[in-house]
# Entry
Amino acid sequence: MRRRLFGSVRARATLGATLVVAVALLAAGASVLLALRSNLTDQASSEAESSARKVAVSIATGTAPAALELPDGDDTPVQVVDGDGRLLAASEDLERISGTGSSAVRPVTPPVDDDGGDDDGGDDGGSDRHGGKGKGKGGDDDSYAYGEIADDAEGGKGSATVDGETRDHRFAALEVKNTRQGDLTVYAGASLSAEQSAVGTALTVMLTGFPVLLGVVGAVTWLVTRRALRPVEGIRSEMSAITASQDLARRVPEPATHDEVARLARTTNETLAALETSVERQRRFVADASHELRSPIASLRTQLEVGAAHPELLDVEGAVADTVRLQELAAGLLLLARLDAGERPGEARVDLATLSGEELSQRPAGRVAVRTHLRPVEVAGSRSQLARVIGNLLDNAQRHARSRVDIAVRAEGPWAVVEVGDDGGGVPEAERERIFERFVRLDDARARDDGGAGLGLAIARDVAVRHGGALTVRSSPAGGALFELRLPVAPAA
# Structure
């Protein structure tokens, strides 16, 4: 059952279309998810750097870490770490953090280096060692010197736990140099919850929608393919019925379209028509051959039976003539069978002038005189078949001529031409193609026939066609028929 299902063109087309769409959807979905995640991550990194830069600006303008107003740790956890890794400031409610310079969540109080000390002679308006303005004894301990903020922030990924809820964050680390506490680093994070939520929602939609979309694609492809292949099924069904009934007159239905299926139907009908013609021709051939063979066989049997009963009445010459006629008919049928089987003519070089002279020399005396105009010209093919053609044309001309027959051989460009004409009654224009059919004899020919079976001209044309040439008939200058045989001239040796 499985083999039968997937052996169907419709099933294979549906499966192929579904697989192609599935691969395309997977690639598109993966690209969308990656682009969405990348954009949201970049957005979170920008937010984290922006928060870190705000805190760094406050530190650089003199605000002490302990006096910083840090954002809520739920959305943007912040840490301020000195060069020794001590946590100087952190967001409230921060319980745990990873991915930053320190895992501590409770800031420590750093030792204060007061350059003014407790000296009475301290200058309240003096400058500290960093060049910033400071206070002497009794000054503000929370004031810091100005610092320098790094141009670029470093990024990283970690997590933060606030009020018992742990979230993934994108952290930015921004360094502030030359503060009163030395070099400090501000770590600020931006939650990745929006990114994870968006990616999760998109993934859920894809996992839900993709199977539905694939199902729709498969169903549509199945229905469209079924409709497209319906004429093919009609052709197959009709061909099966034709095979079962052996009725070659039937034809397959032709769709009223201009696609491949319609061309297939038309080609199938053309093949059926050619096959019907061939079979009908074969049937007529067999029937005509049986009829033609029956006459000489019956005549020969009658003569032999009479000779057996009355030896003195045996017509030996008549029996020999009937035997020769039977032999010639059998030879003609055998040659036609070989031609129909596609026998190749061969590649021998044959001089048509010499061949015509040989055929004329073998003819018995007493027939109509033949005038010759022979010029050497060579063709490639079967010598025996070409001799049969020239012999058949001469037989036909001598059979219908009144006083003379003319045969000419010459070259006309790439063609070798053999013309055989007579001064008989000629061939009516309406019958000039029909006389080349097998077993066809005109009424006048039947009245004057001396044993022809109507195969000579059919054999001659078949041989001419298989040698790449043609055989036609028209009126001769003497008033009779003029048969013209054209064959390609053999290439130079």
About this structure: The first helix runs from residue 2 to 6. The longest strand covers residues 165-179. Residues 114-144, 444-449 have pLDDT under 50 and may be disordered.
